[in-house]
Specification:
Subcellular location: Membrane
Organism: Culter alburnus
Radius of gyration: 25 Å
Main location: membrane
Keywords: Membrane, Signal, Transmembrane, Transmembrane helix, Transport
Oligomer: single chain
Family: Belongs to the nucleotide-sugar transporter family. SLC35B subfamily.
Number of helices: 17
Strand content: under 5%
Length: 436
């Protein structure tokens, strides 16, 4: 009988040994347990919680004491803006965007063509450069020499998110100061929800590149219409047409064809690949929530640049707080001082991200969402080709066919949506004639 516990321990050791060996192999890739993505994510969320929880209690307190009626003093305007805002909702921004688009349609065709080329070139240059730099920063080493060896990799995705957000905050703030904006109506704290999900989606986007290839990530982004539809039903109670479900199914088939036929030679560990899929799933879920929450926020009287400013303000607050609590902020700055090439890449990455957001707003205001979607879909296809050319990603014939299916489905969505809008506008214009 005394031998039973020892035999049980021996069997357990034999069962765990392969996992320990696999973990040891993965440790060479992750450089220690403290670099495991799940642990880093836990630390990040813990840092955000140290800001969110006190903020929640403060907001609850001001609402409970009815501060809007009883409050006085120098802090009253700030607290009113952050907690209560101007609760009136309006559709003024829809009228403004429609008016600007009508003005653009009435201008000369040559001027319109020039604007379209400018928007397309700006979006392509910003986001293609951003994609190439993103893969370079997250998958390649810095300071590699023949004498010293393979160099040093940058590991803190959250610092890159902070760099992107601080520059976007600066650009959007200057834009709001220089150009007239509508009177702001939403309580500032409501931006924090979209900000938190936006931070987590961006973190997942950077982190996933440690485990999967860039083409896989781009295809996953293209397939996010599926969770966006699901989140739209949950958050906004939206209904969808049959063609939307059909194209979503086509996208899922194309992505499956690409993923199941892609070679895993670059990522020898199935654990690593599985981690990449989980992180990518997190990106899609968080990003879907962000877009739907922002749709709800636009019910208030605000411009897109004001939305950009509000979301990035809370993003900077969350990320810098978490980085300082972990001690990672100064470690990342030290990495920048050691590797000037990384500093240049990080700054250029942030510039491309901020400029890209401005090009998004301008393109949608001038030409509408359909033209913008076509440009960005082409950008995704070019990004895959560019990544395969620069970084040597192998794509099989079946995988290439899957990519083609995905982009065919995306173009079908754009075509069907534009037809639906034209049909709707014809019905609207014909209705007064029938009444007469």
């Amino acid at each position: 009988m005394p031998l039973f516990p020892w035999s049980l321990c021996l069997c357990a050791a034999l069962c765990v040994l392969p996992a320990v060996r696999a973990d040891a192999e993965d440790a060479s890739l992750l450089d220690g347990w403290q670099d495991v993505w799940l642990f880093r994510l836990f630390l990040n969320v813990l840092g955000y919680a140290t800001i969110i929880i006190p903020g929640y209690f403060l907001i609850s307190y001001f609402k409970r004491i009815n501060y809007l009626e009883t409050g006085r003093g120098i802090c009253f305007p700030l607290i009113k803006t952050c907690v209560f805002g101007n609760e009136s909702k309006t559709g003024l921004l829809d009228d403004v965007s429609t008016a600007s688009r009508t003005e653009s349609e009435s201008s000369s065709s040559a001027r319109q063509a020039f604007k379209l080329i400018f928007c397309a070139a700006g979006l392509q240059a910003s986001y293609l450069t951003w994609g190439v730099l993103q893969e370079r920063v997250m998958t390649r080493s810095y300071g590699a020499t023949e004498v010293e060896g393979s160099g040093e990799r940058f590991k803190d995705s959250q610092f890159l998110v902070f760099m992107n957000r601080i520059l976007a905050l600066t650009v959007s703030g200057l834009w709001c100061v220089l150009f007239k904006q509508p009177r702001h109506g939403a309580p500032m704290y409501k931006y924090s929800f979209a900000s938190l999900s936006n931070i987590l989606s961006s973190w997942c986007q950077y982190e996933a590149l440690k485990y999967i290839s860039f083409p896989t990530q781009v295809l996953a982004k293209a397939s996010k219409v599926i969770p966006v539809m699901l989140m739209g039903k949950i958050v906004s109670h939206k209904s969808y047409e049959y063609w939307e479900y059909f194209t979503a199914a086509l996208i899922s088939v194309g992505v499956s064809m690409f993923l199941l036929t892609s070679s895993a030679g670059k990522h020898p560990s199935t654990v690593t690949t599985f981690s990449g899929v989980i992180i990518l799933g997190g990106y899609i879920v968080f990003d879907s929530f962000t877009s739907n929450w922002q749709d709800n926020l636009f019910k208030y009287k605000m411009s897109s640049v004001q939305m950009m400013f509000g979301v990035n303000l809370f993003s900077c607050l969350f990320t810098v707080g978490s980085l300082l609590e972990q001690g990672a902020f100064f470690d990342s700055l030290a990495f920048m001082t050691r590797h000037s090439e990384f500093a240049f890449h990080a700054v250029l990455l942030s510039v491309c991200s901020a400029c890209g957001q401005l090009f998004i707003f301008y393109t949608i205001a001038q030409f509408g969402a359909a033209v913008f979607t076509i440009i960005m879909t082409l950008r995704q296809a070019i990004a895959i080709l560019l990544s395969c050319f620069l970084y040597g990603h192998a794509v099989t014939i079946v995988g290439g066919f899957g990519v083609a299916v995905v982009f065919l489905a995306l173009f079908l969505r754009v075509y069907a949506r534009s037809r639906m809008k034209k049909t709707g506008s014809k019905r609207v214009t014909q209705t007064p004639v029938q009444k007469v």
